[in-house]
Amino acid sequence: MFTKSYRLFSVFGFRIGIDLSWFFLAALIVWSLGSGYFPEVLPGLDPTTYYLIAAFAALGMFASIIFHELAHSLVARHYQIKIAGITLFIFGGVAELEDEPPTAKSEFLVAIAGPISSYILAGVLYATGAILLPSGAWPELYALLDYLMLINLVLATFNLIPAFPLDGGRMLRAGLWWIMGSLRRATRIAAMLGAALGIGLMAFGAYNTYQGASIGGMWQILIGFFIFNAAGAAQRQMEVLETLRGVSVRQLMKAPPGGIPGEASVDQITGHPELTGSKSYLPVTDHGRVIGLVQPSALEKIPVEERGRIPLREVVSPLKQAEMLKPDKSAIGTLHQLQRARGHQAFVLGDDETIGWIEARDIFDYINRHTASQKAETEQPTG
Fold first, then answer.
1. CB within 8 A of 239, min separation 6: which ones?
2. Which residues, at least 6 apart from 307, have a Cβ–Cβ distance to it below 8 Å?
3. Which residues are paired to 284 by β-bridges?
4. Backbone angles phi, psi at 192, to 5 degrees
5. What sign does the CA torsion over 77, 82, 88, 89 have?
6. Average pLDDT, whole number, for the chain?
7. Closest Cα to residue 149, out of 119, 176, 177?
8. Residue 283 preceded by cis peptide, ω within 30
9. How far apart are CA 195 and CA 201, in angstroms?
10. CA 176/CA 179 separation, integer angstroms
């Protein structure tokens, strides 16, 4: 769904990240509010003040979306559903679940927590504005609170539309799951409704664009396109999660790579014809344990006269947290983790040594083999 997510901070142990597309949304919000909305509701102010209020509105929207996604995440944690993090992007935010909820009840409660939290926040903002309004003081603050109240009402209400992967669609899926007893079938039906909503929004946006409402129409087309694609992606993700359920790193890892001894000099890497200019990351070891990664093309920047005396351990890039695994970690969680690892690879660490190595493609190969095996079984003639 996203390009690279950049980590900002953590709240209650949840990593908050931001996709580059969010900055486009923030710029659009500041421009539209500063040039249109706030001049209309607060006449007589200078342009700088309008854009300053608009910037605070964008930050308030940022905080509102995090508040909404944190509600999902906290309820998910209560049901021991692992959350990879929360990512903000152009259409809002998403709590990245590493697994499907264990029961229909937990699915429903995780889904409804977001809209409830947004309605509560809207009520708090309304009450705060109502207290400030009689005094007539700080009209700019009141206009800001009023806008954020409206945003939270829209966020909650839009998410209640019963189309996957919106919160309402997840609530619908929970109900279908409870009735039919099958998460796969419930997901398929909810995703079909989500895809239908996406197509409907795109068609409605195209009609509005044709009628002259080009900006609103384009946004409707973009949102519809996002929902259509997200519905299909959510169904595929569910199938992947079912395939990987109960599978651990230990079952998928390969033998640890030989690695390059940390005492080896830089020129032993940069001078090797098969490695010179390589863009891959090579492991560096110390007494059988991977201590970091080197990129041969980066080592070429070291002056030639110094390469013979500098050991790799002095220039190695230490392993990041995302590049270290325990053998019992789930394959589902590992797949999320490898998205943040260099080269999409990680090393399985025992007590004193590296005991394995895994790449994202190892997990995808397992999924493909499992899918092919299931397909072959269903195609076998019976009787």
1. 184
2. 265, 266, 267, 270, 271, 299
3. 260, 292
4. -60, -40
5. negative
6. 84
7. 119
8. no
9. 10
10. 5
Distances (CA, A) of 59 to 7, 13, 30, 66, 291: 17, 21, 10, 11, 40
Q: SS3 sequence, the chain?
A: CCCCEEEEEEECCEEEEEECHHHHHHHHHHHHHHHHHHHHHCCCCCHHHHHHHHHHHHHHHHHHHHHHHHHHHHHHHHCCCCEEEEEEECCEEEEEECCCCCCHHHHHHHHHHHHHHHHHHHHHHHHHHHHHCCCCCCHHHHHHHHHHHHHHHHHHHHHCCCCCCCHHHHHHHHHHHHHHCCHHHHHHHHHHHHHHHHHHHHHHHHHHHHCCCHHHHHHHHHHHHHHHHHHHHHHHHHHHHHHHCCCEHHHHCECCCCCEECCCECHHHHCCCCCCCCCCCEEEEECCEEEEEECHHHHCCCCHHHHCCCEHHHCCEECCHHHEECCCCEHHHHHHHHCCCHHHEEEEECCCCEEEEEEHHHHHHHHHHHHHHHHHHHHCCCC
Q: pLDDT digits over 149-194, tens only?
A: 999 999 999 899 888 888 999 999 999 999 998 888 888 888 888 8
DSSP lists the bridge partners of residue 311 as 265
CATH class (in words) of the domain with range 249-370 = alpha beta
Instruction: Give me the residue label for tokens 């931001």.
Output: 18
Q: In 3D, which of 240, 78, 107 has the Cα closest to residue 165?
A: 107
Residue 287 CA from chain centroid, whole number: 37
CB atoms within 10 A of CB 320: 13
pTM of the model: 0.71
Q: Is 85 left (phi over 0), alpha (psi -120 to 50) or beta?
A: left
Could you tell me which residues come within 8 angstroms of residue 28 by beta carbon, excluding any fewer than 6 positions away? none
Residue appearing with tokens 């409660």: 109
Q: Is 288 left (phi over 0), alpha (psi -120 to 50) or beta?
A: left
Domain coordinates in residue numbering, the chain: 5-160, 180-245, 249-370
Q: Give φ, ψ of 296 to 5 degrees.
A: -50, -40
Residue with tokens 């308030």: 60
Tokens of 249: 């790193």
Q: What is the pLDDT of residues 293-341, one digit of tens each?
A: 887 777 778 888 888 888 888 888 888 888 888 889 888 888 878 877 8
